[in-house]
Amino acid sequence: MDNNKLFKALSSKSRVEIIKILSKKEIHLSELARMMNLSKPVVFRHIKILEKAGLVNRKKIGNVHILSVNLNIIEKTFDFFIEEQRIDVKKDTTLFDALKQIPGVKTKNLGKNGYITSINGEEGYYIYEVNGKTPNLPINKYRTDKNMTVKLKKLVPIEKKKIKIYINKKLKE
To answer: Which of 11, 21, 116, 122 fits as disulfide partner to 126, beta carbons 3.0 to 4.6 Å?
Structure first.
């Protein structure tokens, strides 16, 4: 993947706005142009740049271009920075117990479930994936049965909506 194309694509306010719109639903090019109050050729040029970066997918049905977003490309850009470690465990060890071997990973029991609470001093909420899939088990219940790759991901709040609330004194209490 060419990160230069990705960062070029994200360097434009209009292209970021296109990604925001497409993250909510698939849309056709004409409707997108209307929503952004831009001409179709201008929007199409932005779409071409986003496509080259892998951020937008375009299906052509007759004369209609249906657009959708591919946000996982941004996530994959940062894979280069992931710290990798190897640990050895006995078969049937819980991931919770395995993670206790890694310096900098803090875990905690809350009720019947175990949680990752901090990695390298960075507190927050963490989830785990095993071989690219998110299990439906708490980390203290997931047991090792073969060699696996476990990824720990911090849940980062991303604003999806901003609501401004005003007090209207004319409304009855």
So the answer is: 116
Other beta carbons within 10 angstroms of residue 25's beta carbon come to 10
CB 153 within 8 Å of CB 126 = yes
| Confidence grade of residue 146 (pLDDT, cut at 50, 70, 90) | very high
The SS3 assignment for 87 reads coil
The first and second tokens of residue 132, run together, are 């690219």
* CATH number of 82-155, picked from 1.10.10.10, 3.20.20.370, 2.170.130.30, 3.90.180.10: 2.170.130.30
**pTM of the predicted model as reported, rounded to 2 decimal places:** 0.53
Distance CA 162, CA 139 (A): 33
Top-tier CATH class for 3-75:
mainly alpha
Structural contact between residues 33 and 65, judged by C-beta atoms closer than 8 angstroms: no
Centroid of chain to Cα 88: 29
